Amino acid sequence: MVEESIPECTLTPISLGDGDAILGPGERWTYSCSLTVSADVANTANASGVDLKGKTWTDTATETVQVVRPHIRIRKSVDKPYIYPGETANFTMIVKNIGNDPLRNVVVTDSMPQCKLSAPVGDNGDGILSPDEEWTYSCAVVF
Ligand SMILES: [Ca+2]
Ligand SMILES: [Ca+2]
Questions:
Q1: What is the number of helices (H) and of strands (E) in the chain?
Q2: Can you give the pLDDT at residue 26?
Q3: Which end of the chain has fewer CB atoms < 10 Å from its terminal CB, N or C?
Q4: Cα 58 to Cα 127: distance, rounded to the nearest angstrom
Q5: Relative to the alpha carbon of 22, which ligand is closest?
Q6: How far, in Å, is the centroid of ligand 2 from the Cα of 107?
């Protein structure tokens, strides 16, 4: 017998070995189920069978599915919104992972070629913008 922990997940037999309804040594039966999920889910399958002496044998296996909601946010600010010619304005860019999935290969660019962005400050050293982590970039531009 094969059972599922999620009632909506109806098992469909894909292959039942040689079809004699006995799970012989080395034989493999395959089932599948499909489920639409909107939140993380842990799904456990149970299998049981009775041997020739009448003893029941069981095993379980669990697989999890994480629903990811990736999202990145950038905010930009300047220390001086009004300057005279020749003065320097310092720009700050803060990038934050406001999703629930780690983001890799984060790239920040600026529309002003004179804005040479600093290396980010705020990473914990893994090079990954983790959920809730924020990295701060800055550049100084003389106008
Ligand atoms: Ca069989
Ligand atoms: Ca990190």
A1: 0, 8
A2: 94
A3: N
A4: 44
A5: 1
A6: 14
* Ligand found nearest the CA of 49: 1
Domain boundaries of the chain, sorted by first residue? 2-65, 72-142
Closest ligand by atom to 106 CA? 2
Whether 47 shows a pLDDT value over 90: the answer reads yes
Q: Residue 92, CB half-sphere, CA atoms under 13 Å: how many?
A: 10
What spacing in Å lies between the alpha carbon of 8 and ligand 2's midpoint?
A: 37
Q: pTM for the full model?
A: 0.69
Query: In angstroms, what is the span from residue 28 Cα to ligand 1's centroid?
Result: 8
* Distance, CA of 1 to CA of 45 (rounded, Å): 10
Confidence of residue 77 (pLDDT cuts 50, 70, 90): very high
Beta-strand runs (E) in the chain: 2-4, 12-16, 29-32, 41-50, 56-65, 72-78, 88-97, 134-142
CA of 106 to the centre of ligand 2 (A): 11
